[in-house]
Amino acid sequence: MKKVMLIEDEELILEGLTNILDWKELNMEVVHKAHNGEEALRYWKLQPVDIVITDIEMPVMGGLELLHEIRNIDKRVRFIILTGYDEFEYARKAIHLDVEDYILKPIDEEKLELTLRRAYDKLNEIDRKKAVNIDDEAGWLCFLRGSLEKEEEEKYLEILPKIAVGQSVYGGVMKIEIESLQTVKISDLLVELQKEKNLRVIYLSSDSLFILLYTTDRDENEVYKFFLSLQNKIESTYDVFTFISLASPFNDYKFLPACYREIMKLQKYQVIEGYGSCVAPGTIKNRKSEDISIDDSTLRKMIFKKDKEAALSYIEDLFINNVKKNSAVEDIFQMALQIAMILQNIKSEYNLNDRKNMQNLIEIIDRIYHAEDLFTLKTIFIGEIIQIIDYLHEDDSQYTPVIKQIMAEVEKKYKEDMNLKMLSYKYNMNASYLGQIFQKEVGCSFAQYLSNKKNGDAKDLILNTNMKINDIAKEVGYQDTSYFYRKFKKCYGVSPASLREMKKY
């Protein structure tokens, strides 16, 4: 039976989590309940658990800090994060922390159960591999990251060949296209690679192998050619496609964690290069970082005009024509993040977030960082745009003429002092009745609609200009900068200053 710890600072939610599922039926047991990370860590040290379900923002110690603390002790434990839209910045950071999944509040019972079952299976798989062989992925990953105790580290060092005098070691990760593994087992590839002289191959996961080449050849270009020939051999023999990223050479295993970090950083270039490619520090050193221009207003107009063909052609042009092979990978992810924010702005403005099949911002960003190529990235946004246009078209037919007029007036005059009372006088209607109609047809109050419009334009200015935040607040109609900060964070889950920092990411 797997042990579970629940961490939530709100007592009502904590009790709800305790009673929402039949834990016994899941073969699990809730052994600890805590109200903050510090309390949870004390419980953990007394009795470790297999699965941790935690909120992000809590007093004393938050969920991400707790995750770091426990990960330093145990890499096996599975984490499930509870989050709200206003905690987007925290959740974005958690993408890189091996989190099992994110459950948005209010908690979806079905999703929580599915995530727990998946965590249960993953724990069993980790335990099975560890029982069979020391060459288990969890152990090797800890070793490569430099997070093992010295005694444990020595066990893995004994398995690796000694580095001879005058030898250099080149590390690389071979990422394998899962779809091409239909008729071949990854163990077959591992055995094939081990036939090569001076190679040590380590199984990391179902689609990744870590490779170490021991050589006296100091010519990095020749080493690069060797890995290319290895890649070509795998492709021609097994019809399996791979992507390889290499690191700078080292001559002492104490540099292995730095080598692994460099390799994984270059793995991101798969999104540009695709399978069948190999990258090394020398192949990307001349790439320059530069902004890829996104015309926010043009894309928005295409979507609002419901011109699918034009909008999809614009996205196609961004990803295929503007993104060149010499682009830095950081520019690609920055561009994708900007598009995600533009679409999120539209969804918030027209209250589409809760519509069927509509993904939230956290889910979109998670997909962005797991995309394997430009086609996959492009497909994420094509699907979102089609969905948004379909919902806008569906909603547009439901608006009465007076609501359409008010929405058009907001578009033109939102910077001015506007309120429902003034508009009701203009259209000769009762203010309360007009408010009810607006809420019913648009899905939010007039004040919220106006706020979404102001914040949307503010977001564009933050991302696309160097204007000061207080000047942006005034530009979109907020005279009180503090009030603007509160409304903006409520809308996007991040402060204006944090959003501008994300632009540099």
TrEMBL record:
Sequence positions bearing 4-aspartylphosphate: 55
SUPFAM superfamilies assigned: CheY-like (SSF52172), Homeodomain-like (SSF46689)
Keyword field contains Translocase: no
Start and end residues of each HTH araC/xylS-type domain: 404-502
Pfam families: HTH_18, Response_reg
Cellular component GO terms, alphabetical: cytoplasm
Keywords: Cytoplasm, DNA-binding, Phosphoprotein, Transcription, Transcription regulation, Two-component regulatory system
GO biological process: phosphorelay signal transduction system
Gene Ontology molecular-function annotations: DNA-binding transcription factor activity; sequence-specific DNA binding
CDD domains linked: REC_YesN-like
Record domain Response regulatory: where: 3-120
Record localization: Cytoplasm
PANTHER family the UniProt entry points to: HISTIDINE KINASE-RELATED, TRANSCRIPTIONAL REGULATORY PROTEIN HPTR
Name of the molecule in the record: Stage 0 sporulation protein A homolog
Protein source organism: Anaerocolumna aminovalerica
